[in-house]
Amino acid sequence: MSQYLFQQLINGLALGSLYALVAIGFSMIYGIVRLINFAHGDLVMIGAFATLGMLFYGTPWPVTLLVVLLVGALAGAMIQTVVFRPMLGAPQVTGFIASLAVSITIQNSALMLLSGQPRNFLFPEAMRQRVSLGGVSASLTDLVIIGLTLTLIAILFVIVYRTRLGRAMRATAENLMAARLMGIGVNRTIVAAFAIGSALAAVAGLFWGGKFGQIDPLLGSVPGLKAFIACVIGGVGSIGGAMLGGYILGLAEVLFVGLLPQAYAGYRDTFVFSLLILILLIKPSGLFVRHVEERA
Amino acid sequence: MSKSAPETITMGTSGGGQWLAAPLRIALLIAAATVALWLVTAGSSAYLTTLIAVMFINAALAVSLTFTNGMTGMFSLGHPAFMTIGAYVAAILTFPSRRKASMLPDLPEFIASLDLSLLPATVIAGLAGALVALLVGLPVLRLRGHYLAVATLGLIVIVQGLALNWNGITRGGAGLSGIPRLSNIWWAFGFMVLTVAAVWRIKFSSLGRAMMATRENDLAAECTGIDTVRIRMLAFVIGAFFAAVAGALMAHLISVVTPRTYSIVLAFNLVVMIVIGGSGSIVGSVIAAFAITIVSELLRPVEESFGLYGMSQVIVALSLILVLYLRPRGLCGSDEPAFVKHYLNGKKHL
Amino acid sequence: MPDAPILQVSELNVFRGATHVLKDVSFEVARGELVALIGANGAGKSTTLLALSGLLPARSGTARMTTDEGTIELTRASTETIVRNGLIHCPEGRQIFQSLSVADNLALGAYTRTDKDWIAQTTEEVYRLFPILREREKIPAGALSGGEQMMLAMGRALLGAPKLLLLDEPSLGLAPKVIDTIFDVIAELRLRGVTILLIEQNAAMALEIADRAHVMEHGRVTLSGTGASLMENDRVRQAYLGVSA
After folding, report:
1. Which of B72, B108, B282, C125 sits a CA distance of 20 to 30 A from B222?
2. Domain range holding C110?
3. Could you tell me which residue, B140 or C49, shows the higher pLDDT?
4. How confident is the model at residue A138 (pLDDT cuts 50, 70, 90)?
5. Domain end marker among C106, C140, C156
6. Spatial separation of the C-alpha atoms in residues B338 and B321, rounded to whole Å
7. What are the backbone dihedrals phi and psi of residue C15, each rounded to the nearest 5 degrees, phi first?
8. CA within 13 Å, CB half, B2
9. Judging by DSSP bridges, how do beta strands C70-73 and C220-226 pair with one another?
10. Is residue A66, in this structure, part of any structural domain at all?
11. What is the structure's pLDDT at C75?
12. CATH number of the domain that A45 lies in?
């Protein structure tokens, strides 16, 4: 019993870590330019394939992690500069439509380059073993995912709340004009937010392959949508809220699948999206936001 | 006649000639299109006929989405969900009853024994779509902008999930195949004409003005006594009706529907059509729907011969981004081209 | 060129959308001066300041800022460069960062400054000018009263090391006592040699402390003179000082 529950808990936390990583970037981007970036989930796919490439060449893990972070950051910065910057100040829906177009472009370009065939994705033997802790055991992969995610989130919090760049990002998110008047290079700051958020999503891609064993060019849609749901749970625009929302969503999904009869497992996504509509109905500003944001 | 006596028309009421002339002109237009279509189908392959039919259905879909989104300023992406519902409902109704018993064991007896023809099946499918829209609309239409967009994307996922898992009624991931080919190019053409006519009539009525007032300024519209909640709901439900009918006709045209036939990509392509055509413009949506259907089809052989599957989607997506840069209001803005308005409505709208 | 005016605006034309808001606006501000812009709502005062700090593009005309470090063309430079060179704009409605702490707001004012000692010293000075801010250092700025927010906005502007300070309606919506505090600080800054361009609805107060002033009407500068001479001008007295002829 306790082993079963513990395993479900670890499983849910690992899944929640993936959602949290994607949701945080999603939330940062929304916070700074009020853009629902539908293409954000596709950074997960980019990160997953970057990892696959490096696994192929047997790159050491720390290097792989760094490269994936870098690839994600570059991709995010590029998307912002090329597509979204010219649209700064356009109606929100315009940005959203553009992000749909970016997502379709990324997915189909990947289809052209990599073919739609799913690829097997295996972490090295050493990472797939199970570790026992006083009567209960968990997969090392899950523990690594949880540990690394929490570390990355801690680093992110330091950047956002303790550095000059973070202060500039918070200022830009709150009041673009005033931020300009402080002499902040708002374009650079916005690119930085995109880069950091996208890097986190790419790392989620690294973990995604390890957890699910297969990757394909279209895998980004679902994490993208679920990141949005996580943000809605925690309050769109808040980093802490996105993190909590991600973990709540991961645990809720695992509980849904784990506690109900097997026959209902297929309804997992149906359940998750019904949850979204329910939360939007009851508390559209998110579960953890006390005041409703004016500009939302 | 209309050329000789425009001066006599005052305030659009006394112009008896105009009132008679407008329906005549419309009938003339439809007749001409029918003859042209008949000539085309007579001499062309089944492939081309089907393509033209798909083009008509796409145009009807784009017009109904521009009705829901462009004219009221909402941003729903739910059309594929309603199409899926319409396709399954209609297919289940028209499927021969002797095959239903074995293929779809969980159907209630009174449905399993039905053998409906296409028209009633399609109408029921449309009503089913509208009913779901009504139920979903109650919570979802309180959301604005991109919240509504993502919630309706969620609706697509929910409907897909149900279709995928409700094996006894939907046959799961395999979908329903061997649906009787009851629909054809004439059904598609008729449906498009009907959709355009209905949306056109509404756009230039007091309801249409109320919808556009809701789009421009919610609060101001409320202040003039417009029930904006009701207006939004109406636009959402009517749009869903047309989408469900389109799904039904499409299923009976290509004889198959699976949970993934109408997906997020389709939602995106419809959005592309209405953005390029000009959000809220009926003529723009029709032109854009025709153009994009044709371009995608022309690119197909290129994709196949080079093995570059996905290229046409990339081209469509990039052209959308270009349109957003260069002409964010689309081909026609939210209006109709003046000469078309003149032709169909008479002088009073000029 | 120590004697060149710090700010030289000539024939400036600015559009907002399709509306021609500034029409051939020309004026100068000499080093160390306090110049007031007065005029009715919609006359183009705020637009002038927004154009000077590079937030609105100019259709034609020039605006030149000359300091010891050199000359920059304000209509061509980015806001970032303009601020870095010492043109600090304290905008209408204060525009403080509501969710950030008072200390964060002040630190953002010094965003372009690199000298840590200077920042620490100037922050101390702001706290001396407005002691209430020190007490509220850790509180989100949105929780401050209107007057405290104005003090924060002024303090934040001072941390940008202004050579030319643009103040847009510092008295707007404040209690008379707070207005006095703000104007005392403006007077003190002027004594210290900071050049100030001030927009003020309260024309009487503005003219009283201004060396010179310009009256704007419908996007044009229609009248210029010393603060004292404008106070005597009949048209100004009728239109802006509420004195009947």
Report:
1. B282
2. 94-156
3. C49
4. confident
5. C156
6. 27
7. -110, 145
8. 14
9. unpaired
10. yes
11. 94
12. 1.10.3470
Beta-carbon separation of C111 and A184 below 8 A: yes
Same domain, C138 and C240: no
pLDDT of residue B4: 42
- Flag whether residue C79 sits within 8 Å of chain A, measured between CB atoms: yes
Q: Six-digit token pair at A247?
A: 């973990």
Contact state of C95 with A177 under an 8 Å Cβ cutoff: yes
Q: Are C174 and C75 contained in the same domain?
A: yes
Same domain, C73 and C147: no
In angstroms, the CA C213 to CA C202 distance is 13
Query: Which residues on adjacent β-strands are paired with residue C58?
Result: C14
Same domain, C3 and C82: yes
C contact chains, 3+ CB pairs < 8 A = A
Which residues are registered as beta bridge partners of A136?
A133
One-letter amino acid at A160 equals V
* pLDDT at B9 exceeding the cut of 70: no
Q: Which residue of A has its CA nearest to C52?
A: A181
3-state secondary structure of A139: strand
Contact: A168, C111; criterion CB under 8 Å: yes
- Written as one letter, the residue type at B7 is E
> Using the beta-carbon criterion (under 8 Å), do B314 and A104 form an inter-chain contact?
yes
Q: What is the interface pTM, i.e. ipTM, of the complex?
A: 0.93
C105 and C132 fall within a common domain = yes
The neighbour count for residue C228, using CB atoms within 10 Å, is 13
pTM: 0.87
Judge: B157–A273 Cβ closer than 8 Å, yes or no: yes
- Residue ending a domain, choose from C156, C186, C208: C156
The model's pLDDT over A52-74, given as tens digits with 9 standing for 90+, comes to: 999 888 888 889 999 999 999 99
How far CA C183 is from CA of A125, C134, C158, C176, in Å, comes to 72, 20, 15, 10
Are residues C72 and C166 part of one domain? yes
Q: How far apart are CA C206 and CA C36, in angstroms?
A: 6
CATH code for the domain in which residue C204 is found: 3.40.50.300
Q: Which of A105, A279, A282 to mutate to test the interface with B (most CBs of B within 10 A)?
A: A105
Question: Does A13 fall in a domain?
Answer: yes
Answer whether A225 sits within 8 Å of B150, measured CB to CB: yes
Interface of chain A toward chain B, CB-CB under 8 angstroms:
36, 83, 86-87, 90, 92-94, 96-98, 100-102, 104-105, 107-112, 115-116, 221, 225, 228-229, 232, 266-270, 273-274, 276-278, 280-281, 284
pLDDT, tens only, B176-229: 888 888 888 899 999 999 999 999 989 988 898 999 888 888 888 888 888 888
Q: Give yes or no for B248 touching A (CB within 8 A).
A: no
Over 50: is that where the pLDDT of C1 sits?
A: no
Contacts of B328 in chain A (CB under 8 A): 90, 94
